[in-house]
From TrEMBL:
It comes from Enterovibrio qingdaonensis. GO terms for molecular function: histidinol-phosphate transaminase activity. InterPro entries: Aminotrans_II_pyridoxalP_BS, Aminotransferase_I/II_large, HisP_aminotrans, PyrdxlP-dep_Trfase, PyrdxlP-dep_Trfase_major, PyrdxlP-dep_Trfase_small. Pfam families: Aminotran_1_2. The gene is hisC. Its cofactor is pyridoxal 5'-phosphate. This is Histidinol-phosphate aminotransferase.
């Protein structure tokens, strides 16, 4: 059967999500999930009918939360589907390219590769910022430039002035796709206000992180109306299950938003606790993080990672040499992780 598959699929290495990597333990800080398991009620009525492609109540609720107009919002099965939709909408197979700046989220590459679209990379600078001169040199054939801020796995914010310079540079040539999966932990850094000035800007959002709904698979694209209309041409007929709409709307109502903001404050406090505690350890470098995770460099990261794994504390290996990415959990999980690391490095 394998030889019947497309050659690029045969050669593809799939994205290794936290669940695919597995593990066994009682502290799971490897997938940037929220530790809060919030309760929701599901009506269950109307499940015999197909869902609306773009449920009006959900679109309206997220538009109000994000500060945009409903016609600037598209909802999808997580932000991952948004990435795929953008590639399918704007890139011609065998002709166009995407560009992204590693180290960053791996699904940009996977989505392009599975669609037969070429990939260009311009690594981030030593300070994990955009290398604008090199990006400009590589824009030929590029239709989409993906930028993640806060960046996964580094955790840093991309310089606002550089983002605007990139938007100017790509005007009329390519879309800049800002991945804001973690922006709810630092909303003041969002680029949503730039939508008014730059028609070539698209923004990815999700309910998976700050809203503690990773299992719901509900994401959004924010962009000008023309981009949204084009994406609606290629999206599946019924992408949003009825229960997803029900739960997402509850998460976005007044009470749901208040709860999310309170939980974000709690997680940001836990991140600061982890950062302070790890920074006190000899030989350890903790990089500033603005999402619900921290990138940490250890003297022997692989040895420590294996010890944590065997002890039931499941973290995430980083592609950055000597580093481990640690998701921010509840205070008990953070304390247990920090205590074990202290013991190992003593």
């Amino acid at each position: 059967m394998e030889k019947l598959a497309r050659k690029d699929v045969q050669a593809l290495t799939p994205y290794m999500s936290a669940r695919r990597l597995g593990g066994s333990g009682d502290v799971w800080l490897n997938a940037n999930e929220s530790p809060f398991n919030n309760e929701y009620t599901i009506n269950g009525a109307g499940l015999n009918r197909y869902s609306t492609c773009q449920p009006e109540e959900l679109i309206r609720a997220y538009a109000e939360y994000a500060g945009v107009r409903p016609e600037q919002v598209l909802t999808s099965r997580g932000a991952d589907e948004s990435i795929e939709l953008l590639v399918r909408t704007f890139c011609e197979t065998g002709e166009d390219s995407i560009l992204f700046c590693p180290p960053t989220y791996g699904m940009y590459s996977i989505s392009a590769e599975t669609a037969g679209v070429a990939r260009k990379t311009v690594p981030l600078t030593d300070f994990w910022q955009l290398n604008l001169p090199e990006i400009e040199k590589n824009l030929d054939t590029v239709k989409l430039v993906f930028v993640c801020s806060p960046n996964n796995p580094t955790g840093n914010l991309i310089d606002r002035n550089d983002i605007e310079a990139l938007l100017e540079m790509t005007a009329g040539r390519a879309l800049v796709v800002m991945d804001e999966a973690y922006i709810d932990f630092c909303p003041e850094a969002s680029t949503v206000d730039l939508l008014v000035r730059y028609p070539n800007l698209a923004i990815l959002r999700t309910l998976s992180k700050a809203f503690a709904l990773a299992g719901l698979r509900c994401g959004f694209t924010l962009a000008n109306q023309q981009i949204i209309q084009l994406m609606q041409k290629v999206i599946a007929p019924y992408p949003v299950p009825v229960p997803v709409t029900e739960i997402a709307c509850q998460a976005l109502n007044e009470a749901g938003l208040a709860r999310m903001k309170y939980q974000v404050l709690d997680l940001n406090a836990n991140r600061a606790y982890l950062q302070a505690g790890l920074s006190m350890l000899s030989g350890v470098e903790v990089f500033d993080g603005y999402g619900n995770y921290l990138l940490v460099k250890f003297p022997d990261a692989e040895l420590l990672f294996s010890a944590l794994w065997d002890h039931g504390i499941i973290l995430r290996r980083s592609p950055i040499e000597g580093c481990i990415r640690i998701s921010v959990g509840n205070r008990e999980e953070c304390e247990k992780t920090l205590t074990f690391i202290r013991q190992q490095l003593a």
